[in-house]
Automatic annotation (TrEMBL):
Belongs to the transketolase family. DXPS subfamily. Thiamine diphosphate binds at H88, G129, H130, S131, G161, A162, N189, Y296, E377. This is 1-deoxy-D-xylulose-5-phosphate synthase. Homodimer. One of its GO terms (molecular function) is 1-deoxy-D-xylulose-5-phosphate synthase activity. Binds 1 Mg(2+) ion per subunit. CDD domains: TPP_DXS, TPP_PYR_DXS_TK_like. NCBIfam families: dxs, PRK05444.2-2.
Length: 643
């Protein structure tokens, strides 16, 4: 059976007969090895069919179908531990570990997580979502197993993109000398979400250029065969040649026994190699060559497009188009190119998220001013700091959840020195199907205490554009923080607009008794609630600095202040307002609405907001409850006119 998927089976009664017998890895291990190729073809077909209906991460999983089967076939999971890096590639693993029938609810409310998750299955040994954590976690497991005297295999699976991060090398550097019983599988597909960058990735890619190592290795053996007196020289010569053209030198100097490269889609070779390596003690690394999107032609040709997809047509591969206007990400990309045309000091930086952060056009139009640093958020931030020291104007495009990884650099290298760096912080707030690992739930809280930092939150598309202008014009560090997806649909006034003065809030509606102080994405919902309750509505715009005079005026003229933000309540924008009131000795009833102290699981963005009480009905309900407690609920609030 071919491993290339051509479309739905002509026998729809049971298009996956062998896969349907696999309810857990114990079933898989009972199969003869001769049936594994058929299983791989069926697993690949099931994965494509499933993701075509639900959307989700596809190309990465297609690249590790054979590896996923081989790992569960050779090792005694879950007693033996498999740690997946990032987790985009874990769908085949989920299908083989008893979750096949739940794939129809992938990334939906109450359904499967899009990433390995410890609470979901004992086969998910470590919860992931961020890159480059697998080696550290697996090393910790190996050390713990040794301490407890529990012999078990520990396997970390990491891609060449994730290997570019410093954390992976920190773990390798620490792990080798400890001589742990640890196996690392390097899944080398020459691909991360954006095209891979850096010396490590380039070195791995060169291995594929013409089979140089194999030819030299075999040539040297042939030339020296029959010369027993030179047997030791043969070994030395082989290691010398190997070191010139292979990455083994790097890994073996770190203490890992290097094996490979091996064709990751030759399941017999992968199974055989894993069986041999299972008997090897100590730290070892298997280098697999795979293809992202393997077996589905549209994904092979466009692996970035099929990295994370909406539902698509199974036969043609046509991806369903997203409706609506321009996203905040696209607005940022347009602004970046616009500003770069006018100022040649502008430099754009991304940690391996060119497509997701809206930098494709910028990278094509200004290639000498575009810097993709790979999966290296810490480096991205300090790189920008160094550029700013020399009078350049760096703009760092980064997701909120990934800026967490560069927090020390934000604090120490940028803010402490007051350097002129603009941060375009995307995916702020809840992010829907990607769930808690990718939610930007904490940036107000972690950024607000940092000195010299301006933090802005646009309420709509036009404000996003002009806040970016304000942040770029500000001679110091500034964050513009915007959500995933589209806004309320406000047209951008590029001709008549102006940069927003730092710290200036905007009263959107005058009412009575209640003032809704809303930040960023929750302003539109607050306006709806303001109409229902005849409440004052303020678009706060700035988390830091706050518009102190306006807040104090609101406190004087209203009996209840309600802050609304798509950030954790703890330490967030509402906390900042309470701190100001306490500092000024102002006593007024406050209600802080934001993300509760729990991880918000995957669902649609609207479902997540409703679960947090941050949609229109949730905000209104919370305010009415507070008004009842204040004895102000007798007024005819709903639908009341302003006055």
């Amino acid at each position: 059976m071919s491993d290339t998927f051509h479309g739905p089976s002509d026998t729809p009664e049971n298009p996956f007969p062998l896969l349907s017998t696999i309810d857990d890895p114990a079933d898989l291990r009972r199969l003869p090895s001769s049936e594994l190729k058929q299983l791989a073809a069926e697993l690949r077909g099931f994965l494509i069919d499933s993701v075509s209906r639900t959307g989700g991460h596809l190309a990465a999983g297609l690249g590790v179908v054979e590896l996923s089967i081989a790992l569960h076939y050779v090792f005694d999971t879950p007693r033996d531990r498999i740690v997946w890096d990032v987790g985009h590639q874990a769908y085949p693993h989920k299908i083989l570990t008893g979750r096949r029938d739940r794939m129809a609810r992938m990334r939906q409310q109450g359904g499967l997580s899009g990433f390995p998750k410890r609470a979901e299955s004992p086969y998910d040994t470590f919860g992931v979502g961020h890159s480059s954590t697998s080696i550290s976690a697996a090393l910790g497991m190996a050390i713990a197993a040794k301490q407890k005297g529990e012999p078990r295999q520990i396997i970390a699976v990491i891609g060449d993109g994730a290997l570019s991060a410093g954390m992976a090398f920190e773990a390798l550097n620490h792990g080798g000398p400890l001589d742990p019983d640890l196996m690392i599988i390097l899944n080398d597909n020459e691909m991360s979400i954006s095209p891979p960058v850096g010396a490590i990735s380039s070195h791995l890619a060169r291995l594929l250029s013409g089979g140089l190592y194999t030819k030299m290795r075999e040539g040297s053996k042939t030339a020296l065969r029959g010369m027993p007196q030179l047997r030791e020289l043969v070994g030395r010569w082989e290691e010398h040649v190997k070191g010139m053209v292979m990455p083994s030198t790097l890994f073996e100097e770190l203490g890992f026994n290097y094996i490979g490269p091996v064709d990751g889609h030759d399941i017999d070779a992968v199974v055989g190699t894993l069986r041999n390596m299972k008997r090897m003690p100590g730290p070892r690394l298997l280098h697999l060559i795979t293809q992202k999107g393997h077996g589905y032609e549209p994904a092979e040709h466009a692996p970035t497009t099929y990295h994370g997809v909406t539902p698509f047509d199974l036969k043609t591969g046509a991806v369903a188009k997203k409706g609506g206007g321009k996203s905040y990400t696209q607005i940022f990309g347009d602004w970046l190119c616009h500003r770069a045309e006018a100022d040649d000091r502008l430099l754009g930086i991304t940690p391996a998220m060119r497509e997701g952060s809206g930098l494709v056009e910028f990278s094509e139009r200004f290639p000498q001013r575009y810097f993709d640093v790979g999966i290296a958020e810490q480096h991205a931030v300090t790189l920008a700091a160094g550029m700013a020291c020399e009078g350049m104007k760096p703009v760092v495009a980064i997701y909120s959840t990934f800026l967490q990884r560069g927090y020390d650099q934000l604090a120490h290298d940028v803010c402490l020195q007051g350097l002129d760096v603009t941060f375009a912080v995307d995916r702020a707030g809840l992010v829907g199907a990607d769930g808690p690992t990718h939610a930007g739930a904490f940036d107000y809280s972690y950024a607000r205490p940092l000195p010299n930092l301006v933090i802005m939150a646009p309420a709509d598309e036009n404000e996003c554009w002009w806040m970016l202008e304000a942040a770029y014009a500000h001679e110091g560090p500034a964050i513009v923080r915007y959500p995933r997806g589209t806004g309320p649909g406000v047209a951008i006034d590029k001709a008549g607009g102006r940069p927003i003065p730092i710290g200036e809030a905007e009263v959107r509606r005058e009412g009575r008794d209640v003032a809704l102080l809303a930040f960023g994405s929750r302003v539109a919902a607050a306006e709806v609630v303001g109409e229902r309750l005849n409440a004052t509505v303020v678009n706060m715009r700035f988390v830091k600095p706050l518009d102190d005079p306006l807040i104090l005026d609101m406190a004087e003229r209203h009996q209840l202040l309600v802050t609304v933000e798509e950030n954790a309540v703890a330490g967030g924008a509402g906390s900042a307002i309470s701190e100001l009131l306490a500092e000024q000795g102002v006593t007024v009833r406050c209600l802080h609405l934001g993300l509760p102290d729990r991880c918000q699981e995957q669902a649609t963005h609207g479902q997540q907001l409703a679960a947090c009480g941050l949609d229109e009905d949730g905000i209104e309900s919370a305010v009415r409850a507070e008004l009842r407690d204040l004895g102000l609920d007798k007024a005819p609030l709903h639908g009341a006119s302003t006055g």
